[in-house]
Amino acid sequence: IRATREIKRLCPGAKISGGVSNIAFSFRGNEAVRRGFHSAFLHHACKAGMDMGIVNAAQVNEDVYSKLDKELLEFVEDVLLNRCDNATERMLEYAATLEPKCKPTAVRKLADAAGPKLTPKLNPIPAGFDPLAPPADLPPVPSYTQPPDPLQRSAAFEQLESLMKQRIIFIDGAMGTMIQRFKLQEEDFRGERYANHSHELK
Question: Quick check: pTM over 0.85?
Fold first, then answer.
């Protein structure tokens, strides 16, 4: 999250995408915890400047950050933001008290009221301290000069560029297997441009 903010600060033209579900891969089967992690991480990462996330679109709408169970959110953000030395251990203890299929916006505890004893926080960060706040002594942003574009633009390039400024373009399907249907040989890969290339190109 901090890296996203710094990249955006130093490289304002950069775009950042993240695989959000990987943040809590080990909690598969515990819906509340895993989805709580996704929602909280997405919330903070987007505030820091993340442009796109690989997410479950339906759950993004359902698990809005503001709707998360507050107790669950505290445990999740203790881990995400490293707010105490034993945040991971406490998260595991807390996760064991939840019904595996409950939602992060409607947390349900297991029938055993006693449950595992939750360990107190070890060396928690001071109240009011923001672990995501940027340092006060950040180096200045370097000045940038737009380099000349060495690409020779053809009429086809200009047409495609014009279309891409107006529309979203995507490639659908497994391109590798589609290309294999043509049974291309070495000379097909070389063409005129790479006819004398010193290495095999297929």
Answer: no
